[in-house]
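Task: complex structure prediction.
Instruction: return structure tokens for all chains below.
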Amino acid sequence: MRRLVFLLPLLLAGCAGFARRAEHAAKITALRERVAQGRYAEVVAELPVASIADLPRKNRAEAYLLLGRSLRLSGEVAAALQVFQLAEGLYPKNLNIITELATVLHGTGLDDRARPYYERVLKIHPNNAVSNNGIAEIYRTQGNLAASQRHFERALQEEGWDKNPWIWLNYGEVLAARRRYDAGAAALQKSVSIAESTDSLLALARVQRIRGRVEDARKNLATAILHNPSREDAILQRALWELKDGELDAARASAELVLSGDSRHALARWIRASVYLRRKEPELASADLAVAAAAERSDPFTSKVARAMLERLMGNP
Amino acid sequence: MIFAGALAALLTLAAPPVRASPSSSDALLREHLWEQVRLLKPGRRPRVGLVLSAGSVRGLAHVGVIHVLENAGFPIDVVAGTSMGAVIGSLYAGGLSLERLWEIGAATRLNSGNNLNTIRLISLILNDQLLSSAPLEKMLHDGLGERRFDELEKPFACVAMDISTGEKIIFRDGPLAPAVRASMNLPGIFKPVLYRHRYLVDGGVVDYIPVDAAKLLGAEWTLASVTEHDYSNETPTNVLGALEQVIDIRGALLSRRQRREADVLIEPDVGSIVYYDVAKAVQVMERGMIAASAAINGAKEGLILKSIPGLFPAEEALP
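Output:
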């Protein structure tokens, strides 16, 4: 009996510890669910960095992950970077933390710093889809298209990842940039079939046009514009194709659609000037080119082209 | 942990990865006109020259530069190179595929193209006996066969120096291999090459960036890949390092005019790589890609602007 009395406080302390651990585990589960539901602000509010040290050791790494991820996904990239850098220092072997750190660095354009982290993960797990995708994007930016293609292919092999339209889109664009147009078109078609977006339709249309599938390209471009009628670049792309195909009325109409929103739009002016030039109306063309040439700051290249054409029209070589 | 991994995948799937913003007006016009420039018949656009500088291992960055130019469909009409630029340039002008060029670059060893081994290195130091660069000719024969300049797919020129007169010698005809070997024949390490009655050494001493050689081949617009050594932070610790640094300094000084004459300069970040650091070959090629990727749009725009007369003949626009 005396012994039991002696052990009781220990037993009670054990129960309290167990209850606290269960409470922490429940808290982490709840936070995990909130991240999955996109309620990032709540996670950030409930999980200050300083509070993580008070959690049981086994929950800390995941807590850093949830906090960093919530900060990243709610646009607080600098704070996310700090959290992941701290976490990487504490858990240098935690692949999820390394991957997240690499993703944040890559997202902020610090590709040279992101790449070694992705490579560290891939050394241990060559099929890690997040890292393969991240490093594929870095290689793409850096011009190493063959390596980019290879890593996109590895990422797409992972279960579930082949349902991601964005990866198919990026992969398709890399293939097209390598002049593997048929494979590129197939990948872009896949992206469109999973989820139509202006970007995927535009990219597909461009590749189809290169392959001479003019009607398919037009159809997809038209759908892209329908998807997002405010995307000026899609309308201007249509105008440029119409100009190239000699459909001068249509090209002018497309350019004027953009000019109706911004009467000094440099490229729209340039397109309309090109229509006038083809119709041998140099005075009208000169007026538009002069406006386009004035856009030195916003569109320096368009401005230079317009100026060079204007000079030729005025008789200077 | 497993759960966290699954969550990471789920979240990444849910959020779109990094995407470029909608194409800018400049990008749309650039790509529109670029397709037309590429299709212009010779004579309606400037003849484009690719110039590849000297730079030993650093010169492998040219491989990365060529990759980016080829992927962009850059119309390269003529090629000129010095030293490592001559080796890479000759293989490219000879029609080697990008993959093969990459393989050759990645497989570069300290004794690639020469007879360097431990015994010969000791002999070089103790007996003043220079090494031979003859194996470079075999390497070129293996890559391209025994070709002459006029049998290459693109006109090509390379530069060496006559060690007796200090003259710059530009080769653009005859057998390819001895000329390229002479161009990459580092003085002080390799024996001068006796060719066409001259004793020849590395062209990097007199023409580090051979823009003039490209112009001699008819280039009207030149794009130069320059892989100079950043000697400002380097204190050589051995004979060969000191020799290379002196050659680089002289080459850089002499190349100032050539730099100004190039229409576009691509300068990979390889200045800190020492000439014998072959372990960094792949890294050097990647740096070439990075620099070329950053410069490619500017290069396209430069060539488009230079091609305006061919793209928009004034007489066609006037009534």
